[in-house]
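Page 42, continued from yesterday. The earlier attempt failed because a stray header line got pasted into the input along with the sequence. Redoing it now with the clean sequence only.
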Amino acid sequence: MFSYRHAFHAGSHADILKHLTLIHLVEYLQEKPGALTIVDTHAGAEIYSLKDGFATVSKEAEGGIFRLQAFANSNPLPESIQRYLEAIQPENTPEELSTYPGSPFIIARLLRPQDRLKLFELHPKEIDILRHNIAELKQSKQIDIYAEDCFKRLKGLLPPPSRRGLVLIDPSYEDKQDYRYLEETMEEALKRFATGCYAIWYPTLSRRESAALPDQMKKIATKHKRSWLHAQLRIENAPGERRLQASGMFIINPPWTLEKHLSQALPVLTKALGVDGGAQFLLKSVEAKN
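This time it went through. Structure tokens are written below.
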């Protein structure tokens, strides 16, 4: 389980979809003054170099953030994508994009004084880097770090004291058990905190568990009478899976603004990042039925 390092995938098309969605969720929930608790279940090291190390091995940023940046230089962008690009800019200079912030760094910079961020990471090397990076932030006193299994520990954090919360669940899924753990966690989470917003990232693979994940989440959301939104971005449809070609976000209790936000962003991302005729997106939402 410790072979996975997010640095290999930093700035990829999957990160763009995940972080663009995440930023909108956080900022929407912050429209109310009450304290917001945000949980990131698989935090990683928080910030990644795009110029050396693991990112230069995979080169996924070339088909992700670098391609999007080049597209942005000569094409108009919807506000949703502009906001995403603004959120990753503080770690870079106007002249060069050399660093990519992970979910914890993006969220941390969005925190208001009353908000809390709780980060989980089990990788023994990643968590040391995470702790170091968090300590450098002015928001560090609002952030808790757990070297624990999030699937076991999450239920103890729900519901948060303010009854307002966002949970980002984004395991690597390299271990097939992650799919089962996810289902069990969501069942328990919705029993404890039915009104929370849950953002689930997943890779779109030929693996049976991956293909079944959206339907499993739909069943769980419907069982608990919760609204849901499903978004997927595919940048190519080449034979084999030598690299990740598509990923998705499944949101339980999405804000009403999210569908419009993604309906503007996804066609542009498909055009900007697509590498063949198989590039496409999916967007569907269902309101809760009482």
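Notes: The longest strand covers residues 197-203.
Reminder to self: strip header lines before submitting.
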